[in-house]
Structure formats: structure tokens, C-alpha cells
Amino acid sequence: MAEEEFQEDEQSVAERLAAEALIVDVDGFEGPLDVLLTLSRTQKVDLRKISVLQLAQQYLAFVEKAKQLRIELAADYLVMAAWLAFLKSRLLLPPDPAEEGPSGEELAAHLAFQLERLQAMRDVAARLMARDRLGRDFFARGIPEDVTRVKRVSYTATLLDLMQGYARIRTRDEFRPFVMDRDKVWTMEQALDRMRGLIGFAGTWTDISSYMPDGWDADPVRRRSATAATFAASLELAKEGKVELRQAETFAPIQLRRKD
Amino acid sequence: MMSEGMEKEEEEGKGEQEESLFEAPPIAEQERMVEAILFASAEPVTVKELNDRMPHGADAAEALVHLRKRYEGRGVRVVKVGDAWAIRTAPDLGFLMQKETVETRKLSRAAIETLAIIAYHQPVTRAEIEEIRGVSVSRGTVDLLLDMEWIRFGRRKMTPGRPVTFVVTQSFMDHFGLESARDLPGLKELRAAGLLESRPPPGAMPQLGEGEDDEDEAAEGQSELFED
Amino acid sequence: MMSEGMEKEEEEGKGEQEESLFEAPPIAEQERMVEAILFASAEPVTVKELNDRMPHGADAAEALVHLRKRYEGRGVRVVKVGDAWAIRTAPDLGFLMQKETVETRKLSRAAIETLAIIAYHQPVTRAEIEEIRGVSVSRGTVDLLLDMEWIRFGRRKMTPGRPVTFVVTQSFMDHFGLESARDLPGLKELRAAGLLESRPPPGAMPQLGEGEDDEDEAAEGQSELFED
User: What is residue C81's predicted lDDT score, i.e. its pLDDT?
Assistant: First the structure.
């Protein structure tokens, strides 16, 4: 205690006022490291040469004062106080070779590094903010021109797509008659319908080719289909007992007559 | 218009700007100021406004003359808009003010098939394409292929109605890496390459209309390229 | 610098531009194009975008060298912002621009410090920021900086938990007139003093801030970014 009071006596009035301002203003601090950095300024030395021991004592005094003034300190500040008290004892006592872990000097050096780094960040932050800035010192184009976005669709295909496409058509082509050429097919049902209406008049032998649908003999494809259908229909009618068929010789015309 | 001598004098005057707080800055400096103000302003700026914003004694109108000259033939120009001034893109570079995004899409199946038929059977009429594909060909498909410059109109067929024909173009050859349409593999090769599979057994195929369609009559040219 | 002769030649070449669709326009013409595009844009434009918008075969990077030189000492300047380019008014003429000045949000001390730490230590995790500041970083601070588009998420750190990192953006560089992160003021000195190294605290140090455990992992990244 005596030592601490002695220290305080050493401080100038201005410094004491500053220390009190610290406490009153505790809410304005950005954490214990910030307090330590502020306290370190009273040492008026390069942060690399700072006395961490003295700083620890200043911090502990700051926490003590805050307690006296019944100022609630956040847990962070108290953790730092406890740690600094520990550090202080490490720095004051001769090192115990049996003890594990970093030495007091190592811990102090790291704390000094942290303070220096934080100070450095603050310095460069200030330099950064003091730079010429867009919208304050220099300016962008006031009337930017709209860039119209043109969306273009480009179609693509590979040679493989092309060949596969062609192959697909040609393959389908080979099956095509099953679906495609109905207009050139005369079915047996159609032939039967037609002949049933006509055979009532077939009292005498008539060539079955006369029962072909009109106009189907010009196109060879249609003629072939109609011939086949009419022939099949004739056989069907004979089977039903409705007509009789005859043929003079092989490949001779086939003739048909109503069966009474 | 300024004489050469004047311009020189102004150049020399530049260094003195700082001291002469109540004297007008040299004209070169005024020109810089007008340039910066016109650039940064959201709207065209009148000469009066320029003078109001520039240091006392400056003559924006004169600075504008210099600035305008400086931008002659450049990518942007100093132009008068009503009674105010602005910097604008040179009219011949307007085409740069659009950003083209290209979306690549696969050609539709209908388009590929139509294209393939044209390539293999050219010159070919729309009716022939429809006959081969077994479905009608939409106007859009043909237009797309014409638009892509992969097909073009060929000579008219000497058949009733004189229908137009389609042929493939040089761009088509370039795109598909072909020297000519004759380089397209024939059906045999397609089959050998496994591209033609489901071939029906011979004999299951009714021999209807083989070679007797009237459409075949006029189709000279490509048909001999292909088997079947 | 271009000789008079060269300039003449390019002038003459201008007329041919239309015909030679697949030849790059002369460099003087390319310079005009870059000038027009940069003038038209409030945001920095990347070299790639310039090339995309200019005719086939143009070399925006080369045109930029000429253009930058042309605007030296003028009221507006051609500035580099990361891998993009922009035209900005000369900072010494800021006093003319009261009308254009935009009220920047007054940043809190915490936000300013956090921004500086991200800029100088990037890519940096939240835990590393907290370690440096000795206090936890509030969500609001990070959100504000993200919202201003001065920082963005960088790649995750390859350390346990794969924490996200923060890096500064092109907008940040544009705002503070930086060509690249290497041009941050005092960067060299900080590095020389070892203040940008991530130095793990010796055991038994209090973990300041929220301490997400990844403090001790070697911070790769920021050092390589700032290597000379």
C-alpha cells in the first residue's frame, strides 16, 4: 500500500486527473487492453521499452479505484486484473525452476507486443481515415451512363448431335410404313365393305379387279395394296358362302359370282 | 481563340496559384477545375454555376473553350445541353455502352434434325424436309437456322410451284469442321459407328413406294451420297 | 510517348476500321474507347470487362497506359483500383465539390479499428480481430462494414473449425484511393516491426475477446499477400 501511495505522489496533478477521468469514463473504453494502452501513455516511453510491472500496478490501482467508486466493471477487466496481479508476482519473485510454463518476462513481452500492435493498428487506422477519400476529396462520375445489357442467345450443336439426329430420322424412316403410309394402303376391311355393297349385282362371273376402289390403279403402290385387299376380301366372302370364285389357269384373272 | 503566346504565359502562371489568393488562377488551372466539376456533377452545369463554384475572378466560359478543344476527337466530348455544359460519350462510341451477355443453348432436336436433313439432302425443299421428318417444319426452326447462317436459300426447284430449296452454308462447314457436306458420314458409317442401331430385320420392312415417290424425281445432287 | 508520325498513321488507319472487322482497331482508337467506357462508369471497370466490351483483338491494358499518361496533371485522373480502373477527380480540387460531397456515415472507433485490422491482416478471422483489439467484436460492427461493402467474406481458414475470414473489397480500395492492398499506409513499417505476424500468446495469458480457440493456429495468408 505504502509503495502505491508513493507512486501516486510521484504523478503530476494532470496525470492524476487523467487517471480519474479514465475511471469516470470507463464505459468509453474498448476493453482492458485499451485501458492498459491509455495508462501506458503516462510512462511517456516507447511502447517497446514500457515497464510492464509499473503498468500492472497502474491497472490494479485503476480497478481498485473503480471499486471504491462503486463502478461495475465488466468481467474482462477483472480477469485482466487477476492476471496482472499474477504477472506482477512472477516478475517480482525470482523464477522458480520447478515451475512449468512461460516465464514472467515472456508474458510481459507478449503483453507489450499486444499493446504495441494495438497502438500500431490505431495509428494506421487514423492514417487510413485521413487519406483522400471518394465522395469527400475526389469524386466519381456524376452522370454515369447506363450500360444496356444485351442478352444474346447463341445456339450450338456438335457434329455428333447432327449425325445422331440424322440417324434418328433414318432409323425411324425404316419403320415408317407402319405409321406413315395409311393413305396408300387399302385394308381388307375396306375391301369387304365395298364388295358387300356390290356383290348383290354380281349375278354373272366378273373379274375381281372390277371391285377395286376407284382411282387406285394409277399409282402402283396403291394398286398393289388394293389388289391384295380385294383378293383377301374375296376369299373371306367365299368362306362365308356369299360368293363363288374361279380361275381358268395359273395367273389368269380371278372371277367372282354371287352364290344364291 | 487564344494565341500561342497566351497559352505559354498561362503555363508559367501555374506555380503562382497558391500565393495569389485573390487573383484568378491561371487558365490551365481553371480548365482543370471546369473539367473536374463537369465530370463529377450529376447534371449539366451552367457557366454561371461554374463561375460561382470556381475561385473569384475565374472565367469559366474561357476555360470551357479550351477544355472543349482539348476533348475534340477524344472518346468523350464537352457538349452544350440547353444553356449548360456536360461531358458525354463521343457519338461514334455509343456501341460500347452495351454489355453483351451471351448465353449458349443447345439447338433443339427439331432444329438439329432439320439441319441434318438439309445437310444430307441439299438442296432440299421444305416439303421434302417434312416428308423425311414425318412432321411439319415450323417457320421458327427454319428462321433460326437462317439467322444463325447455318443454312441459306438455294436455287428454286424446277418442279410445279418452283419451291425454294435450302442448302448449308460455309459457316455451317466451319462450325462443324467440314470441308464440304460430302464429308458428312453416310448411313453405313453412322451404323458402323453405332449411331444407327435399331435397324429392323430385313423383310420386316414392307417395300412400299420404294423409289417411286414423285418427290424423288427432282432430288438430284445429294441422294447418291447415301446408301439406301 | 508517341511520335507525331505514329499518331498520324493511326489517324489514317481510323477509316479502315469498319472493313477490318477482325483486326484490332488502332491503339489511338482503343484509347478513345477505354476513355469513353471509363468516363461512362461510376464504378471501376476491370481490364477484362474493358476487353469484353471493346472490339475483338483490342488490348485495354496497353490503351490504359497511354490514357493514364494523357490525364496526368489534369482535373480528372485515371486511377487503378485493384484489377480495375476508374476516372476520379484530382484530390486537390475537392474544395470545388461541396455540392457533390456525400455525407459519409461517421464510423465508430470500434468500426474504424476493425476495418484497419482487416485491411492490414487480411484474410483475418473474427477471433484474430478480437485477439488484436482485446475485446469482442460486436455483430453490428461487422454487419456495418459488410453493408458498406468495405469488407467481404474471404476464403475459410484451413484450421480446425474452418473459420470464415474477412478481407477488404474493391470499394474499400476505391474509397481510400488505393491501387492495391500493398499500398496501405505504413504497411512496410508494420511488417518490418513484426506487428503483422500472428504471435500466439504464451500459455496462461488471458484470452481476450471471445476467443474462438483458433487464435493459436498459424495465420497463413496475410503474410503472403503482402510479400514484396
Answer: 95
What is the model's pLDDT at position A119?
A: 93
Is C39 within 8 Å of B40 when comparing Cβ atoms? no
- For residue A5, is pLDDT > 70? no
Inter-chain residue contact C32 with B89, CB threshold 8 Å:
no
**Residue in B73, B75, B96 nearest the CB of C53:** B96
Which residue did the predictor score with more confidence, A200 or A172? A200
C 107-136 residues with CB below 8 A of A? 107, 109-110, 112-113, 115-117, 119-120, 132-135
Whole-model pTM: value is 0.60
Q: Are C38 and B95 in contact (CB under 8 A)?
A: no
Give C46's strand partners: C84
Does the pLDDT value for residue A11 go beyond 90?
Answer: no
Q: Are A199 and A242 in contact (CB under 8 A)?
A: yes
Grid cell, residue C225, equals 499477400
Q: How confident is the model at residue C228 (pLDDT cuts 50, 70, 90)?
A: very low
Q: Is B81 on the interface with A (CB under 8 A)?
A: no
- Between positions 97 and 126 of C, the ones with CB within 8 A of B are 97, 99-100
Q: Residue A255: helix, strand or coil by DSSP? A: strand
pLDDT number for residue C18: 45
pLDDT tens for each residue of C72-128 = 999 999 999 999 999 999 999 999 988 878 777 788 889 999 999 999 999 999 999
Answer yes or no: CATH 2.60.120.40 is held by domain C26-97.
Answer: no
Same fold, C26-97 and C109-200: yes
| Topology given in CATH for the domain delimited by B109-200 | Arc Repressor Mutant, subunit A (1.10.10)
Summarised one tens digit per residue, pLDDT across range C1-56 is 444 434 444 444 444 444 445 678 899 999 999 999 999 999 999 999 999 889 98
3-state SS, chain B, equals: CCCHHHHHHHHHHHHHHHCCCCCCCCHHHHHHHHHHHHHHCCCCEEHHHHHHHCCCCCCHHHHHHHHHHHCCCCCEEEEEECCEEEEEECHHHHHHHEEEEEEEEECCHHHHHHHHHHHHHCCEEHHHHHHHHCCCCCHHHHHHHHHCCCEEECCCCCCCCCCCEEEECHHHHHHHCCCCHHHCCCHHHHHHCCCCCCCCCCCCCCCCCCCCCHHHHHCCCCHHHCCC
B199 against C135, higher pLDDT: C135
The domain spans of chain C are 26-97, 109-200
C94 touches chain A (CB under 8 A): yes
Q: Give contacts of A 55-84 with C, CB under 8 A.
A: 76, 79-80, 83
Q: Of the candidates A26, A74, A125, which has an alpha carbon nearest to the alpha carbon of residue C109? A: A125
ipTM above 0.85, yes or no: no
Q: Is C186 on the interface with A (CB under 8 A)?
A: yes
